[in-house]
User: What shape does this take?
Amino acid sequence: MAAQETVDHKYVYDFSEGNKDLKDLLGGKGANLAEMTNLGLPVPPGFTITTEACQAYLATGREPDGLAGQIEAHLESLERAMGKRLGDPRDPLLVSVRSGAKFSMPGMMETVLNVGLNDQSVVGLSAQAGQNDRFAWDSYRRLIQMFGKTVCEVPGEEFEHALDEIKNAKGTHNDLDLDADDLRGLVDAYKKIFLKHTGREFPQQPREQLDLAIRAVFESWNAERAVLYRRQERIPADLGTAVNVVTMVFGNLGPDSGTGVAFTRDPASGAQGIYGDYLANAQGEDVVAGIRNTVPLQELEQLDKASYDELLGIMARLEEHYKDLCDIEFTIERGKLWMLQTRVGKRTAAAAFVIAGQLVDEGLIDLDEALHRVNGAQLAQLMFPRFQLDHEFEAVAKGIGASPGAASGKVVFTSARAVELAAEGESVILVRRETNPDDLNGMIAAKGILTSRGGKTSHAAVVARGMGKTCVSGADEIEVNVPAKRFVVAGQTVNEGDVVSIDGTTGKVYLGEVPVMPSEVVQYFEGSLDAEHVDNALVRAVHRIMTHADGRRRLAVRTNADTGADAARARRFGAEGIGLCRTEHMFLGDRRELVERLILARDADGREAALEALLPLQRADFVEIFREMDGLPVTVRLIDPPLHEFLPPLEQLAVNVAVAQERGEDVAKEEALLAAVRRMHEENPMLGLRGVRLGLVIPGLFAMQVRAIVEAAVECAQRGGDPKPEIMVPLVGAVQELETVRAEAEKIIEEVTREKAVEVLIGTMIEVPRAALTAGQIAEAAEFFSFGTNDLTQMGWGFSRDDVEGAFFWRYLELGIFGISPFESIDRDGVGRLVRIASEEGRAARPGLKLGVCGEHGGDPDSVHFFHEVGLDYVSCSPFRVPVARLEAGRAVVETGGSDSR
Ligand code: ADP
Ligand code: MG
Ligand code: MG
Assistant: This one.
């Protein structure tokens, strides 16, 4: 039965059989080629081999049963349709063999053009093209080059070297100056290189070429750089790539031919218009590789008006069909336009917001869809600062603003050096003539990327945008000399290690370090830019989408803030209260003295004196915070970390005592301190005397804090304010702990609020696994739960956070044990399950129990979606993350659950 299934399994789809929704099976490229075919657009005929075939190949090391036969059948019908046979000596059909995974992985995998050419068919191709020998031999040398490099791992430089030699011999820099004889000579040279590296002649059998190319595309899925890229982009490792076999069309047939790439809107700013690059008399890869300098697409209007108009018509049609920005690849063969690729295009964060807003205006999508199309990571990017420019700074060069942001750093010229310096903690700018997939490590390590060649669609531009990294491409005034480790610009030499600044929005390059200023989006959130009146497409789009998100979201968003200033800022950013006000910092600075006295007190009197001195200071802290958050809930956590953190380090103290004794000084006080520090030393402080345990051990400590909170609230209320204090007990694992604290706190609340009624809630953190598992009991004594997911992760996994991230997380990520650090994004299955259990059992015991989260996960987009699903009431995060959480909480509501939202 299993065998039956494999025989019948369909591994190959004609373009006419697929559609854009089959990306899982056909990959993005194949699905969209099918979609365009079915829209009646001019796509060269072809077929797609499925990702399932690739998965089967990668699992077993051989083509699955039935695949060869299905390829044969589809090839035959392609040959019938074209009236040519693959590699026919007189009139050959040629094909490209193109990778194409579900998610775009620019430049990561392989494509081989001109498959089907050999020593005979090259002559037929020439005849077919009107005795165009130059074209035929150019196509043949490209096949050997691409096939050699991608299929047989011949080092690419060898081919480039041979090409350079011939050009040098002719005294030219331009490929187009080489004639048919030169190219025939080049083919000979290439074949020798091929033989030298592979030990065999370049394969002359067209079908063998095809099969080997298909196999190479399958295998390119696991190429090192592809693996690295997937990890960076969080693309699952087991998807595999589809393979597209596409009838060749030729942009290198002469001046009336050419090839280009285009966007239906500006992928950097979102502005409407025509954005693209065109290269006459060239094959597609020339544009993408940024090898020759392209012309703006608008110039095609002069060169070939009919094709230009047709292209614009198709672009409009695609936008309307996909209801989004599309990017395309096209080729013109002797005045005939062919569409070679389209997809919903990558874009910058700013463009994502602007375009979503425009599409709403144009009636193509609604606001829910607009909200779905942007995300918190993009919003976070837009909150980065930008360069602050005054007369002192003049740009020395201007390239293309390929990926926004402001980056300064030391210049480096190789990927390896970038990685090295970054590891030493330096900010670096990677400068290259153009980047290629081998530069990926350096690009990840660098703060920004600067290239002297290539347009908005070059490798550097596309990859940098994907990473959210600042990039200026095509700054052609810069002369890069990699071996000499320097570049020259405007008569000045910049050496490795010199500092430059690049602006990925304007494309400008500056020498030295330019200071930065806050982003417009932050200014808007802070209220200093009014979205209704400012002429700024981005601010208006952000305002509109944020307003919609706020209208849609069910989760409230609070902030973590310990000071009045933080609280005020977070409130401007839209925080609806404080979810976590830590009180530890209130014991530092000049108050440390008092804490030492508290710890060292020999008797109740000494302790009480210290607490009494601390009380008014604490009260003043809370008054300020309640004032800033007037009318909104403020959750104050009673003191959490181990007290010894407030004392001097043991070694230092021991030395001080020894030195003082030596000198015969009075050391009684130091010795007492030292003894206390010794007594309190813990092997595992994170699992030691902290949180509620401390409150139960040091009499009066929690009582003092509770009194300070309630007195502050009463003071505010008496002045006409509306404070909403919530007292939160940390590190509770058993309901009895909470009950004990609660009993004491209630007495104080009763007493203090006698003069002025203020409602005070008492609740607990859920951060110890036992608390999550006994939540039903704990809820009896708690009016709210706040999940402390940092500690819950730490204790749930048994990870000492301060140790594990540096020690072995890299290895766990590499092995795929987790795709992302569980401290960054909540582990849904484990820690998330604890949250779910505690929520359900807590609410069952006490309907209306307030539930929130105050770990760093509260500002992480994926985690916000999870907390929405679980049904929490709010998330709390750092002030800067508040807008991100608001947006994601809105997205969580409109999300249809599609996995295709990246
Ligand atoms: P990538 O995914 O790296 O863009 P592609 O498969 O799109 O790789 O191909 C690389 C280049 O070759 C592109 O510019 C593409 O337009 C061009 N190309 C691919 N197939 C054909 C074809 N059948 N005829 C002409 N050009 C092609
Ligand atoms: Mg490619
Ligand atoms: Mg492409």
Notes: Confidence is low (pLDDT under 50) at residues 1-6, 897-902.
